[in-house]
Write a structure and sequence with these properties.
Structural class: alpha/beta
Radius of gyration: 19 Å
Strand content: 5-15%
Strand order of the largest sheet: 1-2-3-4
Largest sheet: 4 strands, parallel
Number of helices: 9
Distance between the termini: 40 Å
Helix content: 25-40%
C-alpha cells in the first residue's frame, strides 16, 4: 500500500516533519473495496504492506466499504503488515472490522541501530516518534495481532529468529546480550515502553494468532486433539526465562506431525 519511512514514501495522515509531504498509497479506499470483492468471489485473502498511518487507514476504509456492501458474505482475511506508525483514530478499528495486525516485531527496538528515536523525531516529529509500533494497544483492543520477520539480509539470517522477535517484543531494545547484527544495536529502550509485550503474548502471536491470520487455526497454532502435533521442546522454561538475551534460546527437540525430526 505504501513505501517506507526512511525515504519518506510511507503514506501519512499527518505530513512528515522535515519535508511536509505525506507520501502516497497504491490504491484508494474504493479501489481496495473493489479488490476485496473480487478476492471474496475467488476465496482469496488480502495481505498488505502498510507502514504509514494513511496506508493502514485506507485498507480499513476499504474493508468497511466492502463489508457494508457484502454483509455476512464477506469472508476475506485481511492483514495489515508492519504498522510502524498509526493514527490514534484508527487504533480500535482493527478489532471492529476483523482486520489482522501483523508486526515485524524485531523492529520494535526502533528498526535502526544507534539512536533511532532521534532519527524518527527528525522525520516524524517528537510526538509521533514516541508513538511507533503500538502493538500492545491493538492487542488490548481485541484485534488479532500476530508476529513475523522481514528485512532479511543476505548472509545474515539472525533476523529470521522468532526468539529475537520475542526478546525485542518484550524489551524494545537490541543490546550486547541480544543475538542480532551488531549494526542493529540501540543505546536505549525504544518508546513507548507501555507497548512491551509479555512472553505469553509473544508466544500466542507466533502460534495461534498467526494461524488465525492464515486461516489454518483448525489444524495449526495450538496443541489440541485433531491438530497436526507440530511442537517444540526446550530445556529452559520460556515463561520464566530472562527477557534480555532471550534470543539465544533454541529448541532441544522439534516435532512435525507428532514425529521427532531433529
Amino acid at each position: 500500500m505504501d513505501g517506507t519511512l526512511r525515504i519518506e514514501t510511507a503514506a501519512q495522515v499527518t505530513p512528515y516533519a522535515d519535508t511536509h509531504k505525506k507520501g502516497a498509497t497504491t490504491f484508494n479506499a474504493e479501489e481496495v473495496a473493489r479488490l476485496l470483492k473480487l478476492l471474496n468471489e475467488e476465496g482469496l485473502d488480502f495481505h498488505a504492506h502498510t507502514v504509514g498511518e494513511q496506508a493502514s487507514r485506507t485498507v480499513l476504509d476499504g474493508v468497511e466499504l466492502a463489508r457494508k456492501e457484502l454483509g455476512d458474505s464477506f469472508r476475506v482475511r485481511v492483514t495489515c503488515a508492519h504498522l510502524e506508525i498509526q493514527d490514534d483514530a484508527d487504533m480500535d478499528r482493527f478489532a471492529k472490522l476483523g482486520v489482522n495486525a501483523n508486526y515485524t516485531v524485531w523492529w520494535h527496538a526502533g528498526c535502526i541501530g544507534g539512536h533511532p528515536r532521534k532519527i524518527w523525531s527528525e522525520i516524524l516529529g517528537e510526538e509521533r516518534a514516541n508513538k511507533m509500533y503500538r502493538c500492545k494497544t491493538l492487542w488490548n483492543s481485541g484485534a488479532n495481532v500476530a508476529w513475523s520477520s522481514d528485512n532479511i539480509a543476505y548472509g545474515d539470517f539472525s533476523s529470521w529468529n522468532p526468539y529475537l522477535g520475542m526478546e525485542v517484543g518484550m524489551t524494545r531494545w537490541i543490546n550486547e546480550k541480544t543475538q542480532a547484527p551488531e549494526i542493529s544495536r540501540t543505546i536505549e529502550q525504544f518508546p513507548p515502553l507501555d507497548q512491551k509485550m509479555s512472553i505469553e503474548e509473544m508466544i500466542l502471536g507466533y502460534t495461534i494468532n498467526g494461524a488465525r491470520q492464515l486461516g489454518i487455526e483448525d489444524r495449526k497454532g495450538s496443541i489440541e486433539t485433531g491438530k497436526d502435533a507440530d511442537f517444540l521442546i526446550f530445556d529452559e522454561d520460556l515463561l520464566t526465562a530472562k527477557h534480555e538475551g532471550f534470543s539465544h534460546n533454541m529448541p532441544r527437540d522439534v516435532y512435525f506431525g507428532g514425529k521427532k525430526v531433529n
